[in-house]
Every structure is written in C-alpha cells, then in structure tokens.
Amino acid sequence: MHTEKETVTLEAGHIGYLIYCPNPFVFDQEADEVTIYTYYYVREDAIRLYGFSTRKERMLFEQLLQVSGIGPKGALAILASGAPHQVMQAIEEENEKFLMKFPGVGKKTARQMILDLKGSLKELLGDEFIRNPETEGQPAIVGEDGPLEEALEALRALGYGENEIKKVKPHIEKLDMNADEYVKKALQLMLS
Q1: How is residue 26 annotated by DSSP?
Q2: Rounded to whole angstroms, how far apart are CA atoms 135 and 112?
Q3: Which residues of 122-144 are buried (b: 16+ CB within 10 A; e: fewer)?
Q4: Pick the CATH number of 2-130 from 1.10.150.20, 1.10.155.10, 3.40.50.300, 1.20.1600.10
C-alpha cells in the first residue's frame, strides 16, 4: 500500500486501486491485511473509489452526497476534519456557524445540510456515532480560534503528532493565510 496526502493505492490481486480518502494516514502501512470500506462513484466524466476506515464514516459520506451543493470533494473535506460526530452534532443542533468552517460550505449549503439531514443521521448511524465519549458535553464549536490554531487542530485530526507539528509551526506561523492554506503549506513541508 502506498499513501499520499489524499489517496492510498492498494494492491489486490496484482491490480492497484487508487482510493481517495478523508485521511489516508489512518490505514496501517505495515499491515498484511487492510480493510477499507469503499464507495464507488460514477459520473459521466469521472469514476472514482472513495475509502473509509469505518462503515459509519462511509454512510455519512453517502448522506452528505445527497445534499444539494455537496460533491465528493466537499464530503471528503468534511470527513477529513476527523470529527464526524461533531459534524452530526452540529447538524442536529442546527449549528450553521460550525458547518460553514468547511471548505466550500457557505450559509446556503449549511442550511441545506441541516434541512436534508437533521433527524435522519441519528436513525441511520445511531446515537453513539453522534455522541463521542471524548467530546461528550462539549459544544461543537469551542471558541473562535484563529486560522493558525484551526489549521494545527486539523493536522492533529489528520493524525500528525505534536513533534511533526512543532517542526512546521515556525515556518507557517509567520505567514498570513486562512486555515486551509496553512494546512496545505504544513502538509507540503511535512511531505517534502
């Protein structure tokens, strides 16, 4: 298995499958056997495989695709936050402000997510997926962090350790960027 920043290439039966993932680094590189729950996406101009570490993550991805204005790239970005339970909690609590933090999600799309998905996610994915014991009792948004802090949190959610983050922080903190740009720059530095 070969991992890049957005994909894993998995070999099965001497065939390599390129799989787009919210966080490809969650899969064990050294394991002899890896389970990836896939979603086969077909459009007239694209055929892609999307992969997830759990069935419930894949089901949330499928639900997000049903929302007008959210495509596979947007749904992956939402799941890449590493906190699908917080996304679901924000939908249930009608927290548009939290949902608008994701790339490509404006007020209209956030409202559409709430209208389309509120109530249905709990039935489909279960209460325990929405209520994560680690964040139980915490609001979906803890405060107004700056873009740098948001980016550092996103890197932690992607599975990067504090040592890796400390190495790139001095290089990016002197730049004036939004959270997405900070994450991209940090990933470039880490992967180079």
Answers
A1: G
A2: 25
A3: beebeeebbeeeeeeeeebeeee
A4: 1.10.150.20
Residue showing tokens 């495989």: 49
Amino acid identity for residue 76 in this structure: L
Phi, then psi, of 107 in degrees rounded to 5: -60, -45
Closest CA to 71 of 100, 109, 107: 109
Strands (E), the chain: 2-3, 7-12, 15-20, 37-43, 46-52
Q: Does this model's pTM top 0.70?
A: no
Residues 6+ apart with CB under 8 A from 135: 83, 85, 86, 89
In angstroms, what is the C-alpha Rg of the chain? Answer: 17
Token pair recorded at residue 159 = 């599975």
Q: pLDDT for 137-170, tens place per residue?
A: 433 333 345 778 878 877 777 777 788 888 888 8
